[in-house]
Amino acid sequence: MGSGSEGEVGVQSQGSCGGMKMRILVAGGKLQGVEAAYLAKKAGMDVVLVDKAATSPAAGLCSSFRQLDLLRDRMALLELCQDVDLIISAVENQEVLMALAEASLQVGVPMAWDESAYEISASKKKSDALFARHGVPAPLYWPDCGLPLIAKLDGSSGSRGVRQIATERELKSFLQEIGLSGEDYIMQEFIGGKSYSLEVIGFEGIYIPLQVTALEMDEDFDCKRVVAPADLPPSLVNQFRETAIKIAGLVNLTGIMDVEVIEQRGVLKVLEIDARLPSQTPTAVYHSTGVNMLELLANLYTRGESLTPELTPCKAVIYEHILVTPGKIEFLGEHIMAGAGPLALVSDFFGANEALTNFTPGRKSWVATLIITAASRNEVWEKRCAVLSRIKKETHQPALYQGGGEAE
């Protein structure tokens, strides 16, 4: 399926140069790799995917796949790097990142990675300390706040290891548990409210915030649904953009960074930052505005140019994950996609514009990331409900939803 007119809104395609397709190496085939491969496909690029697991989700979305242990097979990595125009890291393992960076230097092929910014964003303690020094609003740390608390692993992204602590008994038990495990946790005030995300592109001191998206979480604090554009008042959108630009300047960003916030009484408090291509939100932004963040990164790292994209939303988008099993449809975080095996990109999936899925006719249990667009937020929600009704009907599911299937 081609990208159609959506991929041409706002920026000129960088997928080919002089009649030659751009060729990129995506290292890592899980959720970030799916995002990179998907956006590269939309940009008309060739994707060489590398992962040590043959069944990685992105394996079904690339032009070619190589099963490779990047730490053991350094010569094979160098050979692959010599045959591409850009390296995209879709991993969080520090040793693998350094191996990719070394290969990038050896063969003279750029890698879309800002090591110093990533080092700060990869540690919640480091990033929170930066926020505190420079007056960036963020949740308070325990014991300077009361219960309930949210506990997070210092060096982990996403929802892995996230725990909510509501009572003194739970707090005492948790402190004993982490004391025995030796794991490095931070504990902050739990703020109940709406979460939002914003990506910012940085290059030579110029920082360009992109579109704000709304995030909806499952009960384990993993993002199950992204909505674009977000229902955030213009004053808070401006506040968010200013905060993202400030943080990007503080880390002297080159490349891309994701900022996640939660709204508390008219103030946006920063939950975390990630100086890498994130998952989920770039695809939602692409379908809403036509801006392809992978193209922006490729243009920046291969041409040394930073484009200012046109960000006027032309479509409303719902991007959400479902797990279908006999008897129910569940709406869960993106972790359900990570172990689903190679995903296929399917157009007109039960009425959804697109889906990333392991569904095959007759399969009883399957997952899908639904990508649904329409002219307005109301229309896209109605379309989404019609998609779910069609899935129920055509796969003979009873009318049972779990985890936020109804309008929220």
Structure description:
There is one protein chain. The protein is an alpha+beta fold. The protein has 4 domains: 4-113, Rossmann fold, CATH 3.40.50.720; 118-136 and 192-275, D-amino Acid Aminotransferase, Chain A, domain 1, CATH 3.30.470.20; 149-189, no CATH class; 316-402, no CATH class. It has helices at residues 31-42, 74-81, 94-107, 115-121, 124-133, 168-181, 234-250, 281-289, 293-303, 335-338, 377-394, and strands spanning 16-17, 20-21, 23-27, 46-51, 64-67, 86-89, 149-153, 163-165, 185-189, 195-203, 206-209, 213-217, 223-228, 255-264, 267-274, 316-325, 328-331, 344-349, 352-357, 366-374, 401-402. The strands form 4 sheets. Strands 10, 11, 12, 13, 14, 15, 16, 17, 18, 19, 20 and 21 form a 12-stranded mixed beta sheet that branches. Strand 14 (255-264) and strand 15 form a beta hairpin. Helix 2 (74-81) crosses helix 3.
